[in-house]
Amino acid sequence: MNGDYLNKVLKIKAKHALYHENGKWYHNLQKFPGVLFDKNGYLIFDNKEAYFNHPSLQSNKDLFIKNGIESLTEYRRFTEFEHQLIKGISPHDVNNAGFEETVRVLREVNSILRKKSLVDKLKKLYDNTCQICGTRLAISQNQFYSEVHHIVPLGEPYNGKDRMDNMICVCPNHHVQLDLKAIPIDEKSLKSIKHEISSNYIDHHNLLVEGLSKA
Ligand SMILES: [Zn+2]
């Protein structure tokens, strides 16, 4: 786990984020707002004064908090939803979380971490046409709709890469099936291939599909 990831995925928007599992030792925060995380929650400091004048923080060269940041009144525990965002969600959780919840969390994490420019580029490259079935979903006379799926999901636990060779342009139906690992990706049977897709990422997806079908 690391501070930058948590800061991003929880949309805290701190300028400096640090993580330590038990919350008892950190380097000093250098930029504000700043945030300290431990494994169960976090502490935000809006500005330098709030940080350096805090009665319970001994900040010399490094920061020591005897009973951990969880002992401080401003400490916030991760909510259940935040927990889900942090760990991402694996298709193995589907039975616990339900299909809709799984798709919602996957997409929330994805939309926070992805580069929209790459997504737009891929949709344009395929002219909003699903690479799996060839559907080009019309929204109006000259507007079409497609989605981009990250083959290895962004965020925990997979930490897929936000790059074109980890992406595929699909229709909403196929996007749901891919998110839930309901169908394998067979590169040879794709309707259209105009960019390079990593076969490692496809293998990763297909292994999960296979694993789930046996579960
Ligand atoms: Zn499709």
TrEMBL record:
Gene Ontology MF annotations: endonuclease activity
Top-level taxon of origin: Bacteria
Keyword Nuclease: yes
One Pfam family cited in the UniProt record for this chain: HNH_2
InterPro entries per the UniProt record, alphabetical: HNH_nuc
Coiled-coil intervals, chain numbering: none
Residue intervals of the HNH nuclease domain: 118-176
UniProt KW Hydrolase keyword: yes
Protein keywords: Endonuclease, Hydrolase, Nuclease
Name this polypeptide is given: HNH endonuclease
Organism from which the protein derives: Marinoscillum luteum
